[in-house]
Amino acid sequence: MPDPEMPAPELPDDGILWRGWSDETLRLIAERDKPVLLFVANPEPTVWPFLRETFKAMPKNAKLRQLLHDGCPALFLKAEEVPEELSSLGAGSRYQIAILSPSGLTPMVTIDPVSGNPDAVVDEIAAVLERVLKTWI
Questions:
Q1: What is the three-class DSSP state of 57?
Q2: What CA–CA distance (Å, rounded) separates 25 from 72?
Q3: Range 18-135 has CATH code 3.40.50.300
Q4: For residue range 80-119, what is the model confidence (pLDDT) as tens digits?
Q5: pLDDT, tens digit (0-9, with 9 covering 90-100), for 26-70
Q6: What distance in Å separates the CA atoms of residue 112 and residue 119, rounded to the nearest whole number?
Q7: CA-CA distance, 72 to 93, in Å (whole number)?
Q8: N or C: which end of the chain has fewer CB within 10 A?
């Protein structure tokens, strides 16, 4: 149950409400029980240029914004701040963008930001998240 003392953050109409790693975020993920979009900002020179452009393109995608506003939490972490729970599963090393299960935050699908232009990568993220949600019970 949401804390009545804590006002709910307003969702930006033209943006994405990114959350950091905290007890509050973990409670929200458990309450919503929906897939989580993870984005790891990794400064590694072979991946950072692609991540940066993908990150810039994400808020421009109306479908992705709607899916996230409808209840899928968006988790943004700097590579050096990825907790052990996620790094042991490959976050920040084997993958930077993923759709995680809310149960255990295990990756269900990982997205390669180097695989295409940023808009195409974001379209893929939105399409995958939409497909996962259709099968979500």
A1: helix
A2: 12
A3: no
A4: 999 999 999 999 999 999 999 999 999 999 999 997 799 9
A5: 999 999 999 999 999 999 999 999 999 999 999 999 999 999 999
A6: 13
A7: 23
A8: C
